[in-house]
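Fig. S4 source data, part A: sequence.
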Amino acid sequence: PAVQRAFREHGRRIAAVIVEPVAANMGVVAPEPPFLETLRELTKKNKALLIFDEVITGFRFFYGGAQTGMRITPDLTTLGKIVGGGFPVGCYGGRREIMEMVAPLGPVYQAGTLSGNPVAMAAGLATLDALRREKPYARMAEMTRVLVTELRGMARFKGLPVQVNHVASMLTVFFTETPVRDFATAKTSDTKAYGKFFHALLDRGVYFPPAQFEAAMLSAAHSPADLERTLDAAARAFRRL
C-alpha cells in the first residue's frame, strides 16, 4: 500500500525503485506475494526503473540470482561478493538500452581506481565457472533446510521464543515469539538473547553473524560434518540461554 500510494501521489517523478529481492540486511525476510510482482507492474506503468540489489543474493540461490527463481526481471541488477570470488568487487548490469548509456557508448561516465582489477576479475570468473560446473544449489538448500528444521526443534524443546527464517541457503535466527515478516516485526527480537547465542556458538568454534539483523549463509564448501558440528554447538548454546 505504501508503494502504491507513493506512485499515486508522485507517479512519473519517481525515477527508480531499488530493493533486495530477498531482504538480508534486517535478517532474512522473504517477500510476500505479490510484493515484487506489484513493484514490477508499478514501475513499468510509470516508466520507472526496477533495480534489484543482488549483492547478497546474486549467484547464491540460483546461478541467475534470486530473480531467476522468482521469475521477475528487473531493469538493472547490482552484484558483489560472490562475483569477486572473495575479493572486493562490485558490478551492475541491465537492459541493453540502459547499459548503452554508459561510456564509451553513451554520455554517462563511470570509472574507478580499482575498476576491472585483474586479480578480482580472475577470482570472480573462476568462482562463477565452478558454480556453473558443480551446480551446488540444491545441496546447499537441502543442508539449510535440515539446519533450520533442527534449530526450530531445539528452540521449541527448550521453550525459547525463536523464529528461524530462511530462503534457499540463507537463514536468520530471530529471538522473538512474533513471526518475522518485515522490519517492524524483526525489531521485536531480543538482541541480548541473540548476543548470548552468538557467543555460545563462538565458544564452540562456530561463527554465526555477530548481529541479530544479519543473515547466516551456507556455502558450497560446507560439508555434512560442518552441519553436525554446527548443530551440536547450537544445542549447547540453547541450553545456556
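Fig. S4 source data, part B ends here. The domain at 2-134 is CATH 3.40.640.10 (Aspartate Aminotransferase; domain 2).
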